[in-house]
Amino acid sequence: VQASLVLHESLRGLEACSVNLDTQETQCQSVRVSRASGRRQVGWQLQVHFDCFEVTVAQSLYVTLRTVPHFCGVQLDQQYHVEDCRHEDVGRNVPVCFAGKFSYWADRSRKVILVQVPEVPGAPDYYVRLCLKWFTCNDVGVPVRVTGNRMSRTVSLPYSQELPCLCLEGWFATPDAVRMQACP
Predict the structure, then answer these.
(1) pTM, entire model
(2) Is the CA virtual torsion 81, 28, 76, 45 positive or negative?
(3) Fold of domain 2-82
């Protein structure tokens, strides 16, 4: 968030806030102008750059910018949507996108799918499930949780349905995690 404003003798600072539209969590940052420097620099233009708002993949934000004190209810605001893992740069550079990908092998003779869960140091636990693909992916059994301290990162999922409609879904054990899907 960048702002440019002309200093006024009663201006004490500038505040930028972001609200996560999904969780309503608010993060604010402010820059203060000391009274002495504010009086000496009345009429000067102040450039402010706020650059440390933490966001997640595919998050929708509402960003506001206002003066301190808040003059006459005036504030600048803008809605912003963070790209998801399908965006080329995000998919290549954000760990949750490339770390969430799993690999699998279908053993049709034993009617089992072996899923290799990614090993990412410090990452949360990971869920894997089988689902039937219609309009959405409907559960077929209970999701399997793969803990970070587990020796083997391979999960065996037996199946009885036909493979063309059967899919795998994998995701990190975090709120609103991006789910990766593959249909053998």
Answers:
(1) 0.53
(2) negative
(3) Immunoglobulin-like (2.60.40)
